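Human
Can I borrow your eye for a moment on a structure tokenisation matter? Give me a protein, with the fold worked out from its sequence. Write it directly below this note and I will take it from there.

Assistant
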Amino acid sequence: MRSGAPTKRGTILFYWIYDYSTAGLGVAFGVAFVVVTWAGILLFRPLVRRWVHRKRSVNDLIGFFLSAFSMIYGILLGLLAVATFQSYSVADDIVAKEATSLSALYRDFSGFPQPMRDTLQDSLRSYTLEVVNVSWPKQKLGEIPTRETELIREVFDKLLTFNPGDRREEAIFGETLRQFNQLIEYRRARLDAIDNGIPSILWWVVMIGALFHIILLWLLDMELHAHLLLSGLLACFIGILIFLIAELDHPFRGHVSTGPEPLQLVLETTMAK
């Protein structure tokens, strides 16, 4: 599955951006909005002056509507930017908690007698390696990994074969089960976040709002150099902001994404042999 393929939730409008470099695509978004704005100004300038600006007061009226619309549209983009950044931060937090839970579970296995101890620890290490080396590249493409489900089920099945022989082992077994359930919760939250994003209908509102904003810029009447400069700056910023929201929309996808570094640290430290 390519990163442009739709998933069951979120938007299908911007999945293709995850196939390209972040810096180049950010510049492309800004330039594209400027080009569309400038092209409209140059193309419609004679018609606007002839049909719209028959009175001088019309320019003031358009400016008033542009200011009001910019405020409403700016609030929408600002809220979306905050929401996507929070989603990105939550994804980072989920990965950190999953790594902490893996580390604690691996240490809990140290309290089991041999050969159960090595069997459980080796199985958990295999699961962690699968997540880092196989599941993470799939997540960046928007795919839900499946092999790790089988591995974590194997760990659970092996854990259930243990029969505590005294109260100490009963206490360790109970704590291990609790820690294992926490790991499952964090893993489930990570998988849920892979295809969770801004709904498509909201993206349509954003794009229609951007079009209306550009049309209002076309309708202004001022000296051409000032018109191109001011409208270009505003259009460029809107394009970059929309790109930023789209790039952060899915925290596990693309180049700007949550990485497996906390899990790798657990492998290199706690699970190192």
About this structure: Residues 1-10 have pLDDT under 50 and may be disordered. Residues 49 and 221 are 7 Å apart (CA to CA). The first helix runs from residue 22 to 51.
